[in-house]
Design brief:
By secondary structure, the protein is mainly alpha-helical. It contains eleven helices and no strands. It is globular, with a radius of gyration of 21 Å. The N terminus is likely disordered.
Length: about 250
C-alpha cells in the first residue's frame, strides 16, 4: 500500500511538472510572437523614417530586371530557407514588399509548400531520434499524437493557427503517421491566411500609412490569439485522453 501511495504521489508530481512545463512553453511562445510583432512594427517605422521607400524601389527594380526568374529564384530560396529552419515570416513579408500581394502570394505558397515537402522528406531520411533531439521529445510526442489521429484535418489546424513552429510541423510530420499527400494538401491550404497577413505587412513598407498595414496587424493578432486558444484546448484534451487511458 505504501508503494502504491508513493507511486501515486510520484505520478501526480510528474503531472504537475508537465502542466507547469506546458504553461512555461506557452508563455515563451507568446513572448516570441510579441517580440516578432514589435520588431515588424519597428522595422516599418525605421523604413519610413529613413526613406526606405527609395531603397525598396531600387530593390524592386533589380528584381524586376530578372524578369521571369525573379519570382522563381525567390521561391527556390524560400524553400531552401524553410528546410534550413529560417523564419518564413520574414521571407513572406519580403515577398510582399518585392512582388505585392497577388504575385507574392503565389511565390510564397509555392516556396513554402515546396520547403515543407522537402523538410518532410529530410525528416524521413534522418529518422525520429534525430528529429526528436532538435524538436524535443515532449513537443514531438504531442504533435505526433495529434497528427496521427486526424491526418489531413490535424495538419490543416496546425497550419491555420500557430500551435507549433512551422519547422516543427514540417519535420515532425515526417516522422509521424501522416500521409504525404494529406500533409502537402493541408499545408498548401492552411498557410494561406498567415501568408496573406505577412504579405500585407511587407507590402505596407512602401506606404506605412496604408489601411492594409492595420488590416494585416489585426489579422496577426487574430491568428496569435487563435493559436493560444487552440493550444489550451489541445492540452486540455490531451490531459483528458491521458486520464481516461490511465483509469482503464
Amino acid at each position: 500500500m505504501c508503494r502504491s501511495a508513493g507511486s501515486a504521489t510520484s505520478e501526480s508530481g510528474s503531472g504537475g511538472s508537465d502542466k507547469l512545463r506546458g504553461k512555461t512553453v506557452s508563455a515563451r511562445q507568446a513572448w516570441v510572437r510579441l517580440v516578432a510583432l514589435v520588431v515588424l512594427l519597428g522595422g516599418l517605422g525605421v523604413m519610413a523614417l529613413l526613406g526606405g521607400g527609395e531603397l525598396l524601389s531600387g530593390v524592386r527594380a533589380w528584381v524586376d530586371s530578372l524578369g521571369f526568374w525573379g519570382p522563381v529564384i525567390f521561391a527556390l530560396c524560400y524553400a531552401l530557407a524553410v528546410t534550413a529552419l529560417l523564419p518564413g515570416s520574414v521571407l513572406t513579408a519580403s515577398a510582399g514588399a518585392l512582388f505585392g500581394v497577388p504575385l507574392g502570394a503565389a511565390v510564397v505558397l509555392v516556396g513554402a509548400t515546396a520547403g515543407a515537402a522537402l523538410s518532410f522528406g529530410v525528416a524521413r531520411w534522418l529518422g525520429r531520434p534525430t528529429v526528436e533531439r532538435y524538436a524535443g521529445s515532449g513537443r514531438l510526442g504531442r504533435l505526433d499524437t495529434f497528427l496521427s489521429r486526424r491526418g489531413f484535418a490535424a495538419v490543416l489546424v496546425v497550419r491555420l493557427v500557430p500551435l507549433f513552429p512551422f519547422w516543427v510541423i514540417n519535420y515532425g510530420a515526417g516522422v509521424a503517421g501522416v500521409r504525404f499527400s494529406s500533409y502537402a494538401a493541408a499545408t498548401a491550404l492552411g498557410i494561406v491566411p498567415g501568408t496573406l497577413v505577412y504579405l500585407g505587412l511587407g507590402g505596407a513598407l512602401a506606404d506605412p500609412g496604408s489601411p492594409v498595414l492595420w488590416y494585416s496587424l489585426g489579422g496577426l493578432v487574430v491568428l496569435s490569439a487563435g493559436g493560444g486558444w487552440a493550444a489550451r484546448r489541445l492540452r486540455s484534451r490531451s490531459r483528458g485522453v491521458s486520464g481516461a487511458d490511465g483509469s482503464r
